[in-house]
Structures are given as structure tokens and as C-alpha cells.
Amino acid sequence: MRTQVAIIGAGPAGLFLGHLLKQAGVDAVILERKDRDYVEGRVRAGVLEQITVDLMERLGLGERMRREGLVHGGTNLASDGEVFRIDMAELTGGSTVMVYGQQEVMKDLFDAAEARGVNIVFDADQVRPHDIDTDKPYVTWRKDGVEQRLDCDFIAGCDGYHGVSRAAIPADVLKTFERVYPFGWLGILTEAPPCDHELIYSNHERGFALASMRSPTRSRYYLQCSLDDRIEDWPDERFWDEISIRLGPDAASRIVRAPSFEKSIAPLRSFVTEPMRHGRLFLAGDAAHIVPPTGAKGMNLAVSDVVMLSEALSEYFQEGSAAGIDGYSARALARVWKAERFSWWFTSLTHRFPDRDGFDRKMQIAELDYIKGSRAAQVTLAENYVGLPLV
Ligand code: FAD
Ligand code: DHB
After folding, report:
1. 10 lies in which domain range?
2. Cα separation of 132 and 153, whole Å?
């Protein structure tokens, strides 16, 4: 088999890239280790930046999102139970975010992939990129026990943090930068109306809490937890008691304590690998970088990477110019590092760090108080939260 671009991974990065290349008339095949239900079923991102909303529209996939998604022009910060609102739309000249779950985005992308003939191979075992240093790279995998091979011009590694693509780049070429946080997020989904019409990010002396949502009837809540905690340590009643304390009495009075139907713990990490290209292999999304979830940036960064990568590849195949592919890594990383900075800062501002003392806590409270009283500080937060432009 032969194609122009072999894409490893059918998460948001791989699927958006597949659609973008299809639209540009570039031939691509996506190789995914799991099946559709698995990829679509993972409960992850909830907040789309304007660039992601725009991309859904540009691909002609905005119809259900426009109908079912929730446009948020503001978000709330809470400090020891006292809530104040950041009016993002007013502060940024009209920018907003969209609450529309990653699961819904994936459903729309998979449905359209089928309809438009975007080529996806599911259940591809032992996917391996080869000869990435040459101009004849190829990918092998096993399907139903049979070895397969795909020759291509380029490989796009969109296979997430644990994928094979980053590992295929020689270790002496890659530089990695990392910060591991000494806590996790315990998240639940519940079939009940949210406690507020917008999100609440809360800094409490007992730890961070976040009230989010998926729809007017489905709530998503997160609690900062210890890395030693297990799901069994957090029966629903304990979760509701704790989040009620951390969000404060006003929000707590509106929490509907319905049974959770999903509960999971995620570790928090900042991670960037440079460069995002080696030879004929490009990295995009979580394969190249991870942010702690606090700023809601992970999936949106995967989107900005593949928008840039698709532009570069289209330029190569349509105009015969290598300028775009040569500039891809530097261009993508410039935006990645700004999102890394924001996610690190927002995490540092809102979480309780076990190794820090009373002084650090006073710094957090002072900064939250400063943001509350300073339009300049609010503009900085708002323009990062809604997402920086693609340049
Ligand atoms: P992934 O989603 O990891 O997809 C990679 C794909 O590659 C997977 O389907 C995997 O099966 C496949 N794969 C892996 N290895 C191989 C292999 N060897 N061969 C073939 N296929 C392979 N982001 C936001 O923007 N906003 C949010 O509000 C937000 N909230 C989050 C909340 C939580 C609790 C978590 C955990 C994450 C959150 N994120 C958020 C982050 C977001 O979910 C990720 O950044 C996003 O999924 C990255 O997409 P990706 O396609 O790069 O990687
Ligand atoms: C959600 C996740 C986030 O990381 C965030 O900052 C906001 C919302 C969510 O899953 O709803």
C-alpha cells in the first residue's frame, strides 16, 4: 500500500489532520491501535477554544456543536469559597469558548470520516515507523495476525504521550522538558444539572476544585487529590461533601448529588519535546507535549499543531515548497510554550502544593485578590484562556 501521509493515531490530532488533508486533496491513511468505541469513549476534554470551533466549522462539522454546545463568555474563580467572575468576552473584544465534550468532537469526526472516505485502519497492532531519516519512510503493523506495510512520503506521529512515534526519534536528537506535579485530579460525570451556568475554578486551602459541565443536564466535577488515592477511596458521598466545601456555600447549595457514572484519576504533568520534526516524521498533539488540564489546553493544542502541519504538507504537495515543513516545529512550539506557561501558571495559582508553606499560600491569595481588582490581570487571564491566535 502507498499513501502521501501515514498518520499514527486516531485521537483528536490524527483525526483532525486526516480531515484537513482530505479537504486539501492530500492522500492519507490513519493507523489506530484501538477500535472506534474505545477512542470515542474516553472522557477527556470539555472546553474548545475559538480556533477549535472555527476548525469544526471550516470542515463543515459545526452543525451539532452549534446546536448542542454551550457558548461561555465568562468563567469564575473562587478563593476559599468566595466567587468572582472573569468576563472573557468583554475583556477580549468578544472571544468566547465552547463547552462541547471531546467525546462529541470525536463522534462528529468519526461519522464524517466514514461519510467522506477518510481512511482509518482500526485495531492496528505493533505500529512502527521506519526509515524516517530517508525520503522513503514506511510504516508497518499487524492486523489480524498479518504483517502490513504502508509506504509514504511523510509520517505524522499523532499517537499521544505513550505512542511509538516520539520513541522512534534518536534520543540524542530530542530535548525534553518536564514538570511532574505532586497531586492528581479525581473527575466524575453525573447526569444532573450543573451547579452554575459557567465553570468555577476554586482555590481552597484543602485543595483545588473545578465545577464544569457537558450539557444543561450533565455535570463534570474535578477535585485535586493525592497521587496515592484510589477510586475506591472516593465513594460519591465523600466526593460531594468535599467538593461542597471547596466550591463554597453558594455553589454547594446548587449541587445536585446524583450518582456518578464515570470516575477516574489523572496525574498532572507539563512536558515538551523539541524539535517536533525529525527527518520525515512530524509529531503533533500529546505525542509532543502535555499540559496539566487546568487551562483546558491539551486538545486545543493538538488542533493548532495539526492546522499548522496540514498547511505545511499542503504547501509541499501543492506548491512543491518545503518552507512550511521546515518551519513547522518552530512555529508550533512558539504556541505550545505559551500554552504550557499558562497551564503551569493557572495550576500553580489554584492548587495546594504539599511541599509549600504559608508564605506560598499568601502569594496565591494575594495574586487572586490582585486579579479580582485589576482589569490588566483579567485581560491576561482571559486572552490566554480563550486561546492565543494562530500565527
Ligand atoms: P490522544 O487523545 O492521546 O490520541 C492518541 C491516539 O493514538 C489514541 O487514540 C491512541 O489509541 C492512539 N495510539 C497510541 N499509541 C499508538 C500506536 N502505537 N499505534 C497506533 N495508535 C496509537 N484538553 C483540552 O483542550 N480541554 C480540556 O478541557 C481538557 N480536559 C482534559 C481533562 C482530562 C481529565 C484529561 C485526561 C485530558 C484533558 N484534556 C483537555 C487533554 C486532551 O484530552 C488531550 O490533550 C487530547 O486528547 C490530545 O489528543 P491527541 O490526539 O494528541 O492524543
Ligand atoms: C474541563 C476540563 C478542564 O481541564 C478544564 O480546565 C475545564 C473543563 C472539563 O472536562 O469539563
Report:
1. 5-70+100-178+269-347
2. 10
